[in-house]
């Protein structure tokens, strides 16, 4: 059985203005590992990027407004740990700003990292957009906490464990805004083409 991807990036988009169609821009919070076992390194690298996951284009990203982790119901502010980095996709000719943090796992549990970037102006939609993003890392097999709501302005609360998914598995969740479910919310999913080897047919 083939593994689908390293993790599920749970991203919701808040539009400051009015409802718009889906966009191919994504805020991404990418960990170096999503399941940390006893044998693995307990040091996790997290990259915060603004990109087109499938096409592979980085875009310039300002320092986020919020960055932190929730573990065992405790919210820890990690904004000061972010360091500015420069990088590009395989087909780009210039570097773009992204952000990186190093985090040391200290005890078993599910670590939900989250980021709230600053709003950006989307000319095509004539409004400001905020991409709220979170990702859950399981440490040392405890598997507790992945289904907790962390209180972002808008978020997807998992109903299915969001790590260790394989081809054919389903991920389900509830879209919430200000803590309330949003019936029939439109959710856009895009494959993270990590090394640019996948070529979309169109």
Short summary of the structure?
With 202 residues, this protein is mostly beta strands. The chain has strands at residues 10-16, 26-31, 35-36, 43-52, 57-59, 66-71, 74-77, 83-87, 96-104, 109-116, 120-122, 127-139, 154-158, 173-177, 180-181.
Descriptive terms for the model:
202 residues; mainly beta; Immunoglobulin-like; seven-stranded mixed sheet
Topology:
Elements lengths: L9 E7 L9 E6 L3 E2 L6 E10 L4 E3 L6 E6 L2 E4 L5 E5 L8 E9 L4 E8 L3 E3 L4 E13 L14 E5 L14 E5 L2 E2 L21
Parallel strand pairs: 3-12
Antiparallel strand pairs: 1-12, 2-4, 4-5, 4-9, 6-7, 6-10, 8-9, 10-12, 11-12, 13-14, 14-15
Helix/strand-derived category reads mainly beta
Query: In the CATH hierarchy, what is the architecture at level 2?
Result: Sandwich
Beta-strand fraction estimate: 35-45%
CATH topology: Immunoglobulin-like
Whole-angstrom Rg:
16 Å
- Inertia-based shape: globular
Estimated helix fraction:
under 10%
Question: Which whole number gives the mean pLDDT?
Answer: 85
Order of helices and strands: EEEEEEEEEEEEEEE
**Total of helices:** 0
The biggest beta sheet is recorded as: 7 strands, mixed
Give the number of domains. Answer: 1
Distance between the termini: 27 Å
Low-confidence spans: 1-8, 15-23
CATH class equals: Mainly Beta
The count of DSSP E runs of length 2 or more, i.e. the number of strands, is 15
């Amino acid at each position: 059985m083939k593994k689908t991807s390293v993790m599920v990036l749970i991203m919701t988009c808040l539009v400051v203005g009015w409802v718009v169609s889906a966009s191919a821009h994504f805020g991404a919070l990418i960990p170096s590992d999503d399941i940390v076992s006893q044998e693995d390194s307990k040091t996790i690298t997290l990259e915060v990027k603004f990109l087109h996951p499938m096409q592979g284009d980085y875009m310039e990203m300002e320092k986020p407004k919020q960055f932190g982790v929730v573990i065992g119901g405790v919210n820890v502010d990690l904004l000061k740990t972010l360091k500015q980095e420069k990088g590009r996709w395989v087909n780009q000719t210039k570097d773009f700003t992204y952000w990186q943090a190093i985090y040391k796992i200290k005890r078993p549990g599910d670590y939900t990292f989250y980021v709230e970037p600053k709003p950006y102006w989307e000319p095509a939609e004539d409004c400001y957009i905020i991409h709220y993003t979170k990702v859950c890392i399981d440490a040392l097999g405890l598997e507790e906490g992945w289904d907790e709501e962390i209180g972002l302005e808008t978020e997807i609360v998992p109903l299915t464990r969001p790590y260790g998914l394989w081809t054919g598995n389903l991920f389900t969740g509830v879209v919430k805004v200000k803590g309330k479910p949003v019936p029939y919310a439109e959710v856009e999913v895009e494959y993270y083409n990590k090394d640019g080897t996948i070529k979309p047919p169109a």
